[in-house]
Amino acid sequence: MLSRVVQIKLPPDVKGKTLLEYLSGRFTYHTRAEWEEVLAEGRVTLDGVTAHADSSMSWNQILEYNPRPRPEPEVNCNVQLLYQDERYIVLDKPPNLPCHPAGGFFYHTLWAILKEGGVPGLEPQETIHFVSRLDRETSGIVLLAKTSRAHTHAMKLLPSPQTVKTYWVVVEGAFPDFLQADGWLFHDPEAEVDKRRSFAFARPPQDIPAETASTTLRCLRRERGLSLVEATLGTGRFHQIRATMHSLGFPVLGDKIYGRDETIYIRFAKQCLTPQDLAALQIPRQALHAVSLIFEGHAFHAPPPNDWPLLPS
Length: 313
Known about the structure:
Blueprint: E1 6-9, H1 19-26, H2 32-40, E2 44-46, E3 49-50, E4 62-65, E5 80-84, E6 88-93, H3 110-115, E7 129-130, E8 139-145, H4 148-157, E9 164-172, E10 178-187, E11 197-200, E12 210-223, E13 226-233, H5 240-248, H6 263-269, H7 275-281, E14 288-295, E15 298-301
Parallel strand pairs: 8-14
Antiparallel strand pairs: 1-4, 2-3, 2-4, 5-6, 6-8, 7-8, 9-13, 9-14, 10-11, 10-12, 12-13, 14-15
């Protein structure tokens, strides 16, 4: 069974502080009173010895914290193995499955499934190196390396023209037959959701941090006010396809951040989506699917999603 134990080596500035002072000041996801309870339960050790609220600390001591067990949201664990060799693993990740432990997810992640041998045809993985990763709601191809050396090699190949990542995305509206979206991505200063980004063909003012983005977009099908678009990445930026489509006026179907109403994401995070929100989304998750990957001369393809209202005819 995987352990959620958090281990850190204490920095020099812990000298003169009690353990409670350090924990409550450094790790604010618990209040001071909550840390007192954690310490009273014996869930924190220093160099393997159970510690207390007034314990003193020293530089380079090993602190371990064993969090309380907690329920996690349900996820889709239907991960499929597409390919493996002595260096790499290629998977088809389902929607509604985070890649990494974060927030309320630890055991219900692709990382944990791989660690525990939960992928048919694949042995439990002692070490996991993500070369590519997908948002929790995005489905499709994920590339992993089995060793740190293979990971370093793969990361060097990702930006090269020989590595090609292609996605399918369903958007609202009648998308043009072809569009080359070469421009800039930057933080949207008017967004209510802090991590939302914007795309523009022209560079924003110099005082706004921005990075180049390139996406080749081809429309595969239009029907019932929706378009199925093939998006081939020239760059691999955070939220690149979703932000680009939103800024072009074609929001991604089911997208809670880059849809027509970003406040849906705020209500989603608070677990209080309304019937009106669900109707506006049309489908439970964002319609983004990593459909193919060309890497080291190999072409990998993920099966089409089975939960979309629009696929190639």
